[in-house]
Amino acid sequence: MPPASDPTHARPDAAPAAHQAARPEAPADATGRRTSDAVVVVHRSGPLQGEVVVPGAKNSVLKLMAATLLADGTHTLRNVPDIADVGIMSDLLAAIGVTTTSPAPGELILQHSGDLVPVAPYDLVERIRASINVLGPLLGRFGQVRLSLPGGDDFGSRPIDMHLSGLEAMGATITLEHGDVVAFADRLHGADITFEFPSVGATENILTAAVHAKGTTVIDNAAREPEIADLCTMLVSMGAEIEGIGTSRLVVHGVEPGSLRATEHETVPDRIQAATYLAAAAVTGGELFLRGARADHMDMLLRRFVDMGLEIVPQHDGITVHAPERMRSIDVATLPYPGIATDYKPLIVTMLAVADGVGIVTENLYPGRFRYVEELCRLGADIRTDGHHAVVRGRPALSGAPVRAPDIRAGAALVIAGLVADGTTTISGVHHIDRGYDDLVGRLRSVGASIERRPAR
Ligand code: UD1
């Protein structure tokens, strides 16, 4: 089908797409607080014991959903986590013309006929960073797109200059108009692109633009996260030609627009959710089997957890962790994969807050990503930040208090802190946690945590 003639306006005849959001978000009031938000109430818990099934990765599934724009027909995604961001991405894709349904838990069907509106509106885009991932597929396939500049977690400035300069190197004309990125290209062409930093999002957008470009695109210093390899695997199953999957040099041989086909794909397990349950076992001195977790995707983190005194046993179908009575402190620096992911950091800081000794944590990706430290200090943690370093002096236990989740991972870290805090810890801002965690409360309770979710008063 031809693309919409004007990317600034939705076609008046575009039918509203039926979709089923995974978990709709509550509306926000003027202060940004979700008006029907819940709270999570945690009491100090004994050693967690048992098995947790690790859901699919948020940072993969949202990109897989965007990639379905590349081929008409019916796509099936499996191991889809029940998280709010999947619902938000479904809403965004619905505005573009994709119908999303969830016939069974963990399964998402995405359908479209190629009759799409290449416009990503502000009210949806500002809610999740991953909305930027529709840029590459829409531009590569339809030659035009209008996308509001993205939002996402509030942990500092997150520019998209590498996304845009990569697309320009492939022949796109890009302007910024009234807060929107407006991009055109008759047909993108292959290019040699070297990123100055291995950006996850930029790698994904160039990849999904390049699959339909004329000629070969080489991406050097590409991000190597397992979620990018997952996206590449899905693109290949759709008919894309990609070499170097899992490495920092991706070579994409463009195929004719319209030649990709719909596919079925299973989402890679979520290494950040897996790390959250490892942290829960660690602070309570417990023993858990994390079914589905991939030790090969978490290698560096698991090594450092071993340095802290955790016993980690990778299995063919998961990871077993056995925690000591008290962990040892270590120093940690975040780096792009295969280094320690910045998303693990609030969990590591929480573990260090109750470990034996002093640990220094260095953030190398997002300067502002220490905002949750104040909340941890409300729970009695001894943490000082200086620029992009945090010095964490371990204490035997924390002390329960009301705290507010500032973003997804920090919210989960506050829940973990509550497990080792005397008394009661009440976490508000739970909508942040819901964006990326599939039933964190239920999963923790099933292995012995004293935790519940209550409506906010
Ligand atoms: C993704 C993840 C996020 C994770 C991050 C790093 C999703 C939805 N989010 O975010 O959870 O913390 O990877 O592992 O998958 N940058 C630029 N210019 C650009 C692009 C990025 O300066 O054009 C900077 C960013 O501001 C940041 C750093 O590069 O400081 C990393 O960004 P990037 O790897 O692109 O992360 P995201 O894809 O946004």
Automatic annotation (TrEMBL):
<keyword id="KW-0131">Cell cycle</keyword>
<dbReference type="GO" id="GO:0071555">
    <property type="term" value="P:cell wall organization"/>
</dbReference>
<dbReference type="Pfam" id="PF00275">
    <property type="entry name" value="EPSP_synthase"/>
</dbReference>
<comment type="pathway">
    <text>Cell wall biogenesis; peptidoglycan biosynthesis.</text>
</comment>
<dbReference type="GO" id="GO:0009252">
    <property type="term" value="P:peptidoglycan biosynthetic process"/>
</dbReference>
<dbReference type="GO" id="GO:0019277">
    <property type="term" value="P:UDP-N-acetylgalactosamine biosynthetic process"/>
</dbReference>
<dbReference type="InterPro" id="IPR036968">
    <property type="entry name" value="Enolpyruvate_Tfrase_sf"/>
</dbReference>
<comment type="similarity">
    <text>Belongs to the EPSP synthase family. MurA subfamily.</text>
</comment>
<keyword id="KW-0573">Peptidoglycan synthesis</keyword>
<dbReference type="GO" id="GO:0008760">
    <property type="term" value="F:UDP-N-acetylglucosamine 1-carboxyvinyltransferase activity"/>
</dbReference>
<dbReference type="InterPro" id="IPR050068">
    <property type="entry name" value="MurA_subfamily"/>
</dbReference>
<feature type="domain" description="Enolpyruvate transferase">
    <location>
        <begin position="44"/>
        <end position="443"/>
    </location>
</feature>
<dbReference type="GO" id="GO:0005737">
    <property type="term" value="C:cytoplasm"/>
</dbReference>
<dbReference type="GO" id="GO:0051301">
    <property type="term" value="P:cell division"/>
</dbReference>
<keyword id="KW-0808">Transferase</keyword>
<dbReference type="GO" id="GO:0008360">
    <property type="term" value="P:regulation of cell shape"/>
</dbReference>
<feature type="region of interest" description="Disordered">
    <location>
        <begin position="1"/>
        <end position="37"/>
    </location>
</feature>
<keyword id="KW-0132">Cell division</keyword>
<keyword id="KW-0961">Cell wall biogenesis/degradation</keyword>
<protein>
    <recommendedName>
        <fullName>UDP-N-acetylglucosamine 1-carboxyvinyltransferase</fullName>
        <ecNumber>2.5.1.7</ecNumber>
    </recommendedName>
</protein>
<dbReference type="InterPro" id="IPR005750">
    <property type="entry name" value="UDP_GlcNAc_COvinyl_MurA"/>
</dbReference>
<dbReference type="InterPro" id="IPR013792">
    <property type="entry name" value="RNA3'P_cycl/enolpyr_Trfase_a/b"/>
</dbReference>
<feature type="compositionally biased region" description="Low complexity">
    <location>
        <begin position="13"/>
        <end position="30"/>
    </location>
</feature>
<keyword id="KW-0133">Cell shape</keyword>
<keyword id="KW-0963">Cytoplasm</keyword>
<dbReference type="InterPro" id="IPR001986">
    <property type="entry name" value="Enolpyruvate_Tfrase_dom"/>
</dbReference>
